Amino acid sequence: MTAVLALATSLLWGLADFGGGLLTRRLPALVVVVASQIAAATVLGVIVVATGAWSEIGPQLWYAVAAGVVGPVAMICFYKALAQGPMGVVSPLATVGVVIPLGVGLTLGERPGLLQYGGIAVAVVGVVLAGGPQLRGAPVQRQTVLLTLVAAFGFGSVFALIAEASSTLTGLFLALFVQRVCNSLVGGAALAVAVRRDPAAAPEGGMAVVWSAMPALTLVGLADVAANGTYSLAAQHGPVTVAAVLASLYPVVTALAARGFLKERLLAIQAAGAGLAMAGTILLAAG
Question: Per the UniProt record, which residue ranges are transmembrane (predicted)?
């Protein structure tokens, strides 16, 4: 069950990233992040009310608050790093954040078998290669590396925090709602500051353009929410070490979606990475 849920997480996150990437061709990246999170928070609010999840309020929600604060900061750093480039270095480097949930799992006493350790190593290498790393001719500014590492460890921290934010299904709905509200508040504040400093940060065409894209933005936000939910369930039902590695396969999904829908050609190193990632998945499942 852990493997299935974690793979569902990677599928949902990969598709959310793909959809978000398409939308950033029409809208500023920060607008995409904020609008999609507000849409997701609205839907989750309805679910929380309908299921009576308010009764699950407790100290565990602080983990959701922390995830909601860390997430937008990580995303903003990631987008800034991508803008500075080169993307072929930034994208795979961002996957190193998986060491956070892996470390949490090992600290809690999880000890994967030898076969699973091999699967973890193969899968992580595969994910890095699937990002299409530029191995030559790719000078990188120190600021870009720093931003990418901040983003990576931010993403990894969200992995770990959301896994601790609830212990029941209704509690998970509430935790995801709280996380999305915090995402919206932090992201909205960052957007307000950005627009004040540079009016060009606002979407060209104003709110009319944002409203026209709301159906797609809502789908991206809900896919992101669903991914957090399946990851939390995966971490609760099995080893966090296995769940974290399988969930981190989302760059492979994004690359394959770009190949299938946009006809983008995969680099040889990306194809090899995708193959290694799948091999690692098989080893993890077999272990």
Answer: 6-23, 30-55, 61-82, 89-108, 114-132, 144-163, 169-195, 207-227, 239-259, 266-286
pTM of the shown model: 0.78
DSSP state letters, 174-199 = HHHHHHHHHHHHHHHHHHHHHHHH-G
How far is it, in rounded angstroms, from Cα 126 to Cα 98? 13
Cβ contacts of 52 within 8 Å, gap of 6 or more: 170
Q: For residues 6 and 101, what is the distance between their CA atoms, to the nearest angstrom?
A: 13
Q: List the chain pLDDT tens, one digit each, 287 residues.
A: 888 898 899 899 888 878 887 887 788 888 888 999 999 999 999 999 999 998 889 899 999 999 999 988 887 787 777 667 555 556 666 667 777 777 777 777 777 677 767 777 777 777 667 655 555 555 556 777 788 788 888 888 988 898 888 888 899 999 999 999 999 999 999 889 988 888 877 777 778 888 889 999 999 999 989 998 998 898 888 777 778 778 877 777 777 787 778 776 666 776 777 677 667 766 665 55
Total of domains in the chain: 1
Which residues constitute the domain of residue 90? 2-286
